[in-house]
Amino acid sequence: MTAQQVLFYLFGAFAIVSALGMVLNVRNTVAAALSLVVTMIALAGIYVLLEAHLVAAIQVMVYGGAIVVLFLFVVMLLNLRSDAFAPGRGRLQKLAGALLGIALLAQIVRSSVALPEAPPVPPGFGGYRQLGIALYTDYVLLVEIASLLLTAAIVGALILAKRKID
Amino acid sequence: MAGVLDWLTAPQTLFFLGVTFTVFLALQISAAVMVYAERKVSAFMQQRYGPYLVGPKGVLQPIADIVKLVFKEDLKPKAADTLLFAAAPVISAMAAIAAFAPVPFGAATTFFGLLPEPMPLMVADINVAVLVIFAITSMGVYGIVLAGWSSNSKYALLGGLRSSAQMISYELAYGMALATIVMIAGSLSLREIVDAQTGYYFGVIPRWNIFVVFPTGLIAFLIFSTAGIAETNRAPFDFPEAEQELVAGYHTEYSSMRFALFFLAEYINMVTVAAVVTNLFLGGWHGPLLPEAYGWIWFLIKLSTLCFGYLWLRWTLPRFRYDQVMDLCWKILLPLSIANILVTGFVLLLVRGATQ
Amino acid sequence: MIPLDHVILLSAILFGIGVVGVVTRRNLIVVLMSIELMLNAVNLAFVGFNRLWPGQPGQNALDGQVFVLMVITVAAAEVAVGLGIVISMFRNRDSVDIEEVSLLKW
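The joint structure predicted for all components is written out below.
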């Protein structure tokens, strides 16, 4: 068990435990958001182990530093203190949801094959230079479409959240 | 087991541990020094003496402050969420200290010939150092958000909301100014950015990034400094602390050591921003007259000058209103930084050709 | 190195947890966060498979990581619009319970 494998299992355990903590908690929406941040940081650690350095940094910056902060903003703005909803009717739903998740997982595990050993990585793999070249030569159309998408999302979010001006 | 022991006592590992310990200690000491410097500098600017009772010229004043804070009663509002309330200052302080990890403060040294190969004076030699600093600073927003939320009072909530909105807005201007420097230096690693700033123009003007591609380097320096000051909630952008005078701020319900942790985080953040500005714009540890091995002295000189500048700014300018802060970021700094990137890219393309 | 089938297994487990969150929870914000978790699981699968086929030394095949960047972009856009919807819903119904907006159910 090399150090990399130990780290991978450690990060994986963190990710699963905090994902479960996010989905199954009834304490607080803010605690769920913080569990999500822990999941994302654990996943960023796994990305570094998989030689995707720039993607790991962007994951922490954008996901952990902006998207979940946006969630927390909305929670604070709407002052959603407790997360308790009416029990009883949800129990059957909970059971159905758990069974669905387990069935999905079992199907994926059943259909998975043993993947071969990873080949050695060429130098500069996952670094910003190679990723930048790939983004601006092969995938430049994706970049332009992403910019259009983000503009549309900004305008849409503004219109949705604005107060009505009569 | 023997392999682990060999690795533990290898000179590289000992050097690394020594550097880490020194940096950690130096950050705490610098926070204490900044507390004292702030009070003395503000006193001299306001034509009064400042602390002079405790120790010669009041030098032991920070220690007196810390002792006082330790002995204060640790209040906790009854309706506050205990775990988040306790975690918020810890997250702030952790993010502030961890952000200094990829910052180099000295040239590669063999430490008087003890090391087999020269190792740079930094805690972690990451090749995407700039992004890592950015990411860890983004994590510092959580401390403020949680502090505002877990205090369970409307004013703390609004203060936390405004302060964190300010922080994430200025991260954009921060990043754009950073992009200019990355374009000029061609690398995201702080060590390589500093290494690209050796030498002189015409033998007199040092080749610092603030003078490169004049005036876009200077504009990037100004934007980055402004955004850095706004990020750390300092100087004219400190309405979360000001609200404490008017209504309440995000750390209103905190007392004694928790409050001390928040202020430690703020001063260490300021030192980190000054260190990053020194490395990116002012040439890091390069300077005349001293040999390269003592470059960290020049680093400290530049760092102290910048911190003095930030203190000076605080006691000179009046405080911005919240809508003025947001206007400044979105309507002035952001378009200016984008135009800066365009002009810099254009000039670099002309000068260097299309090979880079 | 890292056994890549364990990476894909981790991705599947996280995706399953996300699906459970979307189907089960009644708080709309937690539903949106579970969708983010599913997108993260998919990102992990992309990065894992990209590690398996990194291309030749002269030519790096970074398709998986470019896609991960695009998925992060789309997730950011979706969160912005989704939270706008949450705010409108809260203004109209004063609650973020998805059972309150079930008027179109049979």
